[in-house]
Amino acid sequence: MQWVRKLPFVPKEKEIDDLVAGCSRTVAVFLQLLKETGMRSGEAIELTWIDVDFQKRTITCNMPEKGGNARVITNLSEKLLAMIKRLPQENKRVFGFTTKNSLKAMFTRERRRLAFKLQNSRLLEIHFHSMRYWRGTQEYHRTKSLLHVKRLLGHKDVRNTELYIDLESKEFTFADDNFQTAIAVNVKEACRLIDTGFEYVTGEYGDGGKIFRKRK
C-alpha cells in the first residue's frame, strides 16, 4: 500500500493565543516563540541569549534540526521580546536547564486544563509543531512565495515547503483574499509601492497607470 501524507492540523490564531495567555510563564514564552518564528521545538530549546538581538528584533537559529539551514528571523514582536526578557538568565540558554521533554509534559497538562476551561476540544490537537504549520501557512498566504517560506522554516529542499500550498488552500478561501490596490504612473511611484509591500499585478492603460496590490 502506498503511503499518503495527510494534511496536518493547523490551529486558529486565537486558539494559540488562548494557550499562550493561559499557560505558565516558561511554556507561554516557548509557545509565543514557536508561533512567531516557526522554529522546531528542538531548535527553540537550544536558543542562547546571544542568538537574540533585542535592538534589531531578530533571532538567529543556529542549531537547525533535520539537516535544515541556519537562519535569521526578523520583525519579532515587542510582546515576544518582553516575554523573553522576563525569563531568568540561569545560563547561556534562554530556557536555562529546562528540557524539551519537561516543557512538553508541562504543556500537555496545561493544554488539557485549558481545553476543559474554555470548552474547546480543538486545543487538545495542538502540539509544539502545530505552531510551525501555522506560521508557514500564514506566511505562504501572505506572500505566495515558497522561497520565502523555505528560508523562514530552514528547509533544505523546497519540496518540503510545497506542503504549505495545500495547507494554505485548506485554511483560506477566496473570500479571505482582501486586497488594497494602488496605481503607479511612473517608476518612482512603482518603487515606493514595492517598498511598502505592494506587488505588481497588471497595467499599461491610456493614462500610463499600472496596478499594484497587497493584502490588507
Question: What features would you highlight for this structure?
Answer:
hpI Integrase, Chain A, 10 helices, three-stranded antiparallel beta sheet, alpha+beta, globular, 6 strands, 216 residues
Explain this structure.
The chain is α+β, with helices and mostly antiparallel strands. The protein has two domains: 13-171, hpI Integrase, Chain A (Orthogonal Bundle), CATH 1.10.443; 178-215, no CATH class. It is 46% helix and 12% strand. The chain is built from ten helices and six strands, in the order αααβββααααααβαββ. The strands form two sheets. The chain has a three-stranded antiparallel sheet with strand order 1-2-3. Strands 4-6-5 form a three-stranded antiparallel sheet, covered by helices on one side. The longest helix has 18 residues, at 100-117. The protein is globular, with a radius of gyration of 20 Å. The mean pLDDT is 90.
How are the elements arranged and paired?
Elements: H1 13-22, H2 25-37, H3 41-45, E1 52-53, E2 58-61, E3 71-73, H4 78-85, H5 100-117, H6 128-143, H7 146-153, H8 158-161, H9 163-171, E4 179-184, H10 187-195, E5 199-203, E6 210-215
Antiparallel strand pairs: 1-2, 2-3, 4-6, 5-6
